Amino acid sequence: MSTIKEQAAISRLLSFLQEWDNAGKSLRVHILTRFIESNEGKTGPELELEFSQGASLFLIRLTTWLRIIYMTGLDLEKILRSIGIFLSAVSSNRYLIEFLEIGGVLTLLEILGLEKIKEEDKKQSIKLLQIIANTGRKYKELICESYGVRAIAEFLAKSKSEETQEEVQVLLDTLVHGNPKYQNQVYKGLIALLPCGSPKAQQLALQTLRTAQSIVGATHPSIVEHVLKILTTVHLEVQYEAIELIKDLIHYDVRLPLLQGLVALLIPSAKDTSKLQAKIFTDSSLLQVTNQLPVFLQQAAAAKTIGILARSDFSLAEDLLRLRVVHCLLSAMGNTDHSNSQRLASLTLEYFVQMFSVVEEHVRKSMGEELYQLFISNAELLYTKMDSVQADILAANKVNVSRELILTESQDSISFYLRIGGSNQVEEDTQLEKPKSESQE
User: Fold this and answer.
1) Dihedral (Cα; 202, 204, 210, 215), 10-degree rounding
2) pTM of the full predicted structure?
């Protein structure tokens, strides 16, 4: 038999639920405000005590109302925060299951794609998805199975709030950890984000890709193209993250195509430069904005990245020499349309000249003594001291250090095998002499 106290508690619960059921929009918002103020941070048992073991009855009403009104574009922040109190409560796994059973994940993902809904409401939706994902592997899988990666990535690309975008990054990072079944899906979703028009989204995607790459291991075939393409950015924070990712990727199976791609960017294609010349011919105002042209920004970034890679690993510097990087750096130094390309290419070439005598010899010969002396005295400011003739000479250079390196390596190999062969012959002669000596004795 129920005690009078229990009956009173049940009566209060029924009265509260009846008030909710009969309330209009404004009164429900007021009820939610009171609920949030009174219950934020409570555990599952505390919520049950508050609702006389009937908290699930209120959660069902909240979720049902959310599913009814979310497509109308009405203010969802308070209802999402109220649901979050249930989902984030300690010892509240039952609430999470109840929310998921009536399609909670799909509703949260659909909210992200609706233009009518406010950014702040979408941010609350992301926070609920974070709570779900952090609960365990099967819940991460449920989000991914509901086409969640695509919905979340698209929202990251379209969001106008950096704070919200950072919350999305946290969610994507959670989904790539401890989720072997769908970690590749998250990895591919991050790569697909790289061409988007939001610099902040690009920056966050690049950061998360570094983590995802270490987890996934094998590289995706398109990652080289996308990362090199992003070097056209005018945003230094994005360029920094791209270079950091390249530094990681260089240790995977895309090392050679990545180096080849970087070296190729030092000499923009004739197709790209001819388009620029045609536009300048018809619109002279473009002469004022050549510093912002993607092909030249990419050239400068490639020169910078090559310098960073070469200084970090001597074997990378050797590989780059075999790809004719010296020829390409000299050519970039002759690009009078973009001073930053000239400056960065010159600084990178300076390192190769200091480290390889064969490079020094070829560069001195190609530049001529006068320009070479200016180069070694101050490589960074060389572009300010070059005249147009010297720039043209650099742009049209025919330096091929790689040919000499190949010949040197071949000679070293022959010399090595000759030494080994000679040593073996001495051993054979010694073995032949031993029996002879023994017979004489």
Assistant:
1) -120
2) 0.86
In order of 90, 132, 137, 418, 428, the CA distances from 338 in angstroms are 59, 50, 50, 50, 65
| Residues whose CB falls within 8 Å of the CB of residue 366, separated by 6 or more in sequence, listed in order | 330, 393, 394, 397, 398, 399
* 252 Cα distance to chain centroid: 16
Cα gap 284→358, rounded to integer Å: 43
Cβ-contact 123, 167 below 8 angstroms: yes
With 0-12 / 13-18 / 19 or more C-beta atoms within 10 angstroms meaning exposed / middle / buried, residue 104 is buried
Mean pLDDT for 302-318 is 97
Alpha carbons 39 and 354: distance in angstroms, whole number: 67
Q: At what angle do helices 55-69 and 93-101 cross, to 10 degrees?
A: 40
Mean pLDDT, the chain, as a whole number? 89
Contact at 8 Å (CB) between 149 and 182? yes
Q: From the CB of residue 242, how many other CB atoms can be counted at a distance below 10 Å?
A: 24
